[in-house]
Amino acid sequence: MKVINNRKRQFLQYGASLIGASAVSSISQPAYSQGAKWVGSQYHNQPAISHQHSFLVDMWSAVARETNGQLQITVYAQNNQIPGSDPQALDMLQRGDLEFFTLMGGILGKVVPIAEIQGIPFAFQNNAQVYAANDGSLGEYIAKECAAKGIYRFQYGLLENGFRQIGMIDKAIYTPADLSGMRIRVPDGEMFRDLFSSLGATPVTVNIRELYESMKTRKVDGQENPLVITEVNKLYEVSNNQSITNHMWSGFNLLANQKFWKSLPGDVQEVVLRNVKKYVSLQRTYTNNLNKQLEVTLTERGQKFNQANIQSFKDKLGDGFYGRWREHFGKTGWNLLEQSVGKL
Q1: Would you tell me how many other CB atoms lie within 10 Å of the CB of residue 203?
Q2: Are 158 and 287 within 8 A, CB to CB?
Q3: How far is it, in rounded angstroms, from Cα 44 to Cα 339?
Q4: How many angstroms separate the CA atoms of 340 and 217, rounded?
Q5: What is the average pLDDT across 225-237?
Q6: Handedness of CA 183, 207, 159, 140 (dihedral sign)
Q7: Which residues, 6 or more positions from 155, have their beta carbon under 8 angstroms from its beta carbon?
Q8: For position 341, what pLDDT does the model report?
Q9: Are 293 and 3 in contact (CB under 8 A)?
């Protein structure tokens, strides 16, 4: 309960209302809409009470103020309820029907294959390694590949989600043998499917908005996400067990439609870039602290925690899994990853 109270206080400090997506997103529209030269939308896939929404709202509010209302972006939680969720929003971004979007590399990889490298299992040992790679040369390489597909990727715009754990309805996972035959919900990314197939589970692709119901009706036996996703999506109401695996890191790349981004003058771009770096840094710190605190909070909510045998998962994947993905990403991308994390 303490974590939730702290979170509400922090959200209020960052200037966000917690009374619904439409009310919160309206904060990013100060009272100078008539003077706006550039207007757009920002989508993300999490609820309004989440570790993304308030930071994005405050970021674009700051941009609106600093540009004297010339650039105004409205933030929409849960991708504005579009039917196709993340894949559809990504398509909209490429077409120019959406100006800004945050998306994990595993799904961005459907259009920009190298982006999936952000989620290589057991590659990153800590958040510092993640940021060094993605704010550095690896991130620059991903951005170059995004640009070829009409997408602008913000170099310091990688928002934190956290290391992923396995949350089961009623079973603890210690080794890959415990996953045998289990239906595990995964996002719509090829690496997620390959990972859990290689570990002996049956991956089932379900978008985030349908995850709660899928677990409630036992369409799936479990899911894998950072603890903050279990919290903000109330998955603790439909599951009992959390196995600490830290099997993948995940976060949300801040993206723009490249044509829209290039249409902005340099001084406006500079305002955006400065605020992206500021608010993403705040979001990273906040989310990392929240993930650390949530083991206590989720225990109070009835979750049982256990530490998985990490080495057994690495052994099960073996050279076959890593060999496939090394070939998929190519020498350049793999070498850039290993510069940050060491030999894989």
Answers
A1: 22
A2: no
A3: 30
A4: 42
A5: 95
A6: positive
A7: 135, 139, 140, 143
A8: 94
A9: yes
